[in-house]
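From the shared-data thread, chain only:
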Amino acid sequence: MGELADRVDTMHIAVSTPDGGITAELYGRDGLSLTFRDGAYRQFTDETELERRLEALAGRLWVARTREYWRIYGDVTGTDAAGDDPPAGERDRQWRAERDELVVYGSSAYGDVTIRSVGMRGWEVGIRPGTLRALDEWQFAAAAGEAAGELIRDQYAKLVALSSKHYGEE
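Structure, as C-alpha cells:
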C-alpha cells in the first residue's frame, strides 16, 4: 500500500456528545468503539433518546473523520487539501451527485442496532425496542460497532461500484 492508504488505515478519531456522556472512536477504515461515561447508558429510559444522540454523534464523527482524511491527504501530497477538487466535467458532476445520494446501511449481527445514511450526511440510527433492557452497555457498544463497521464497508463497496460505473471504461 502507499503512504496515504497506510495512514488512513491507522488513523484514529474520537468525538463525544456535548455532555460527554457518549464517546465514539473511529479507528482504521471501519473500526468503531463506543463508550459511555459511568452510568450514562442506564440513564436512557427508552431507545428513542439514545437513537437521537447516536445520530448526532455519527454526524460529528464523520465530519471529524473527513477533516482528518483531508489533513492526511494534504500531508502526503504536499497540497493544501480541504476537500474535493472542482469537478473536471460532467462525468465528475454526475459521480458527485450520485455519491451524495448513496444510501448505505449497517446492522449488528442480531439486528439490535441499525444505522442508515444518505450521502454520509443524514443519519438514522435504529435500536430494536427492548434492547436497552436486554443488553448491558458493553454488549450494546459492541453491537453499535458491528453496525457502524458494516455501514462503512457498504459505503466503500458502493463508492467502488460508482467509480467503476463512471470511470471504469477509460
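The two ends are 23 Å apart (CA to CA).
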